[in-house]
Here is the input.
Amino acid sequence: MTALTIAAAQSVSIAGDVPGNIARHLAFMRKAAEQGVQLLVFPELSLTGYEPSLAAGLAIAPDDGVLAPLREMARELRITAVVGMPIRLGAASEVLIGALVLGPDGSMAVYTKQHLHPGEEAAFAAGQGGEALEWGDDRIALAVCADFSHASHPRQAAEAGANIYAAGVLISEGGYAPDTTLLQGYAAEHHMVVLMANHGGPTGGWACAGRSAIWGADGGLITAAPGVGDTLVIARRNTAGQWHGEQLAI
Here is the structure.
């Protein structure tokens, strides 16, 4: 088995400040690269904050030049970063919740949130998901927040061969216990490593819980952030298939 290092970027977003959030993302990417991270996953709508009322004005096409610093950094550092942004595809006027995959070869792939929370339809349209990431013998399926609340979503990922399920989320204090119970259960049920990247501070009027986490394929916790704040949550797999975790404040 090949070695692999993945991480959740538990970031604190500034409402509507895309340049400021990009700068923070770049800092996370640099720190992650120093730690040998190959895949870095940010929370839902990490580049704008979870701000439905601002989304229409901030939405971009995935190939918009505003993302150039992030794409260039991914290429320079040879890291794959999954960042959250409201997007529009083609000539469509609908705003989607996007998870944009910035590859180390300069490529861009798009995942769009398939399942909306009640009330999100006022600002967003449901998306179509996206292809899993192929990484040697690993297959990494993506999710955005409410996607994982539908048991069919991780089940279909597992049936398609995913052994890692990576979700960028917004989970509040009140929702943390039930949501993490679901995610931990999926890890054990489907024998997948499950990564959850949560916001590290308030956004969109929500008091986010932080405590981003990564569970092993047996459902056991590999590592988790101790609380809120900018934190890199890292899981490393050695060639024997064993996982070890750590957390670093950013």
Q: What stands out?
A: The chain has a mean pLDDT of 97. The domain at 4-249 is CATH 3.60.110.10 (Nitrilase/N-carbamoyl-D-aminoacid amidohydrolase). The helical segments are 18-34, 52-58, 68-77, 152-159, 173-190. The chain has five helices and 13 strands.
